[in-house]
Amino acid sequence: MRKILIIITIFYSGIVSAQSGIQLQELECEMLKNPLGIDVITPRLSWKIKTEESQVMQKAYHILVSSSPEKLAKDNADLWDSGKINSDESINITYQGKELDSKDQAYWKVKVWTNKGETEWSKTNHWSMGVLTYAEWKSTRWIGYNQLFPGDSVGQFSKLSARYVRKKLKLKKPIKEAKIYLMGMGLYELYINGDQIGDQVLAPVPTDYTKNVKYNVFDVTKELSEGDNVIGVILGNGRYFAMRQEYKPYKIKNFGFPKMAMQLIVKYEDGSSETIKTDESWKFTVNGPIRANNEYDGETYDARMEIPDWNTVGFDDSDWKNLMWVQEPGGFYEGQMTPNMKINDTVMPIGIEPREDGYILDMGQNMVGWLQIKVKGKRGDTITMKFAESLKEDGSLYTANLRDARVTDRYILKGDNTETWEPKFVYHGFRFVKISGLISKPKIEDFIGKVVYDDMETVGCFESSNVTMNQIFKNAFWGIRGNYKGMPIDCPQRNERQPWLGDRTTGAYGESFLFDNQTLYSKWLDDIKYSQTLDGGIPDVAPAFWRYYGDGVTWQGTYITVADMLYRQYGDLSGIRNHYPYMKKWVKYMEDNYLKNDLMTKDKYGDWCVPPESLEIIRAQDPELLTDGDVLSSAFYYYLLNLMEKFAGLIDADENDITYYQNLSEKVKTAFNEKYLDQSKLVYANNTVTANVLPLAFGMVPKEHEQAVFENMTHEIEVNKDSHISTGVVGTQFLMRTLTKFGRADLAYTLASNKTYPSWGYMAENGATTIWELWNGNTADPEMNSQNHVMLLGDLMIWYYEDMAGIKSDPEHPGFKKILMQPNFNAGLDYVNASYNSSYGEIKSHWKKNGKKLNWEVTIPPNTSAKICVPASKSSKVKINKQNLENLADNISVENDQLVFELMPGDYSIKTN
């Protein structure tokens, strides 16, 4: 019997939740995510086919969904029986069964028919519904204590002790099932009878709490028992309290003191149930060991104040205070559909050097998270850890670029033998740590760096023959994951850490090749929607923790480009469908307020971070280097109008919408060319690379002038810019792909592999292990330079995968249902080895050149196909798996001196001569 493995996955409005497997001869199951608390009634179901067979394509599927595992085992699909559906679709299948109510359970399985045969039923998978209506929360009170205690303070450097909360309860019957629904603002840790629940950290994900509040759901059946029990919660400050509380209120939003709301729903074996809710009987103390916890300034922990067994049944809490009913945050309650953060990796230091006042620890890598320490000392000794990305010439910490973030953790010893500690409610961006207060020489193994970011799968790897490009990829990998904090932030180290839209306009697309960021960006679209003003404006930062509403296009347009990325990379149309009305509202808002003579006249940031004329200055001042803001905004507005036209077609919007976008975009294009295209020189505006690359990338250049404009742009790069980058954040988003599209992949390769200023390689050559904020961050007032930003990556990672590895989703068949594999073998690389784990399975592309010979190993996952392009003009020059091309390939043709053909799923060794 053939072996076919099916991996089944649940999507909730595009949110990956769970996975399990089936093999015809041997069953196995692996749960990857917690599918609890889903607050949409039509989840989407997906599965992957894994097999050693080649050319496996799905022909039909059959889904069963039941209200209990027992019913499902008997094929009693009381919720939904899809019947046999003749379809090759295996991702984003919408649940069409019985309408699900709050807290309902659903168990499901699937079988598929392929051209190689029928599979068995998959193992059982499961999801549960969340709290679907606000009414079900109404009787659950928010509890907290809106007071400062001795040692607390409010201001620029706010300081607030953690709240330790507990509730005793007695469960009088044998328990069948128990779930906790928890909202803990700003951050929480949950305990049952002394055991911590879950491995999440810094939970929940941040939102604008006046707009929406996320709840997490935990199955605690195994942790509770008949009789006495205790629920314990530590409430930290997070974004809720610690964002410079009441400091610059005109700019920085603040929300109040930590608070929580919770329901524990217990179902007993006799069929009865009980709900325990937060009320004024819950007790708390602030006299615990966490004396301060502030995202920017650090955590202070006094081990002398530890409260042994505070979260267990036998603890005496008679001297604890009762919490009070407090005002709710104001936002609507939503099930958190994206995973929390967790410790995903560890880093061991590479060196420790003594200083007069302590030691400097070198992690060897600019990382994001915190430091675990093992120390010995006397009771009351204080170990101080201050974090930084780099050192001064004298070997001391360089902290000026952190601005007023104090980034200092303190541990006060209780005086036991060896004490091990790490913080709970902060994170730092750092490579170096100054450690003070040690009474003996430390060992390097006394310290471990904990790498913290959203719990997501690494889906891509890339290696090439160019060492510089490989280091850039590693730097991008570390920078991207370090800036995933329940939302994409700009930097993790200084007093900013904000979710700037402009950093991810194209960045989100490139990042998706490295990490499964679908849930993160689906959530971020909601953040942007919630921050939209009533008349349609979109902020520069979302959630709008900073009140910046600049009304630009290149930043705010990220709302549209991220939705397009989710569709392109994941086949996820829900982002477009759910957000289309709000995007349309913004497009009209910009037209009504800023479109003059068919040109968009509003821009705020320009082509941010263009390499300046001098290494010593931060911002370029020479007007010849700067692109006019109206050029940027008008070109980008045209690009976004075309995306909106595409969206309208995808979701069957009103035909008047399509006409509106078509007419308006044509007007903008005409006005743009009339004003900015120099008909004699055939360049745009003042001939910056950005001014030319945008109309080329967006298809705005009249066809008869495209090649001339492109050649003039490449002349500007090669001659006037010495084959180096001259674009900022906006231009770099389209530079590499446009150069390659018009036949100059070799020039793109030069930009990617340069090691001199300005370039990504220059950063690496000067010690960077992540991506800098500035091209000249080591020379232009380093106080301004974040050494861990991702905005200057532009479309580089997209270019790595799509143009160098040849792993690209066909826009007409999104989500990699059909793969376009057309590496540029002559750009300058000798080999590339890359892989990407798509929604259908792993795609691999490993090619190596030897003179005029090419060896290319390709993996195409089941239920997909690939269009393959190889540099040969005759089929006799190509062998696949040692066979003639015609034996394995379909639809063979010659296009632009390349053989083009289609391959079905499988592993292939392609050789050309």
UniProtKB/TrEMBL annotation:
Domain Alpha-L-rhamnosidase concanavalin-like: 355-453
Ranges of residues in domain Alpha-L-rhamnosidase C-terminal: 806-882
Domain of life: Bacteria
UniProt entry keywords in alphabetical sequence: Hydrolase
UniProt KW Hydrolase keyword: yes
Molecular functions (GO terms): hydrolase activity
Domain Bacterial alpha-L-rhamnosidase N-terminal: residue ranges: 173-343
Reactions listed under catalytic activity: Hydrolysis of terminal non-reducing alpha-L-rhamnose residues in alpha-L-rhamnosides
Keyword match Hydrolase: yes
Gene3D superfamilies in the record: 1.50.10.10, Galactose-binding domain-like, Immunoglobulins, Maltose phosphorylase, domain 3
Enzyme Commission code: 3.2.1.40
Domain Alpha-L-rhamnosidase six-hairpin glycosidase stretches: 458-803
Name used for this protein in its record: alpha-L-rhamnosidase
Organism per entry: Zunongwangia endophytica
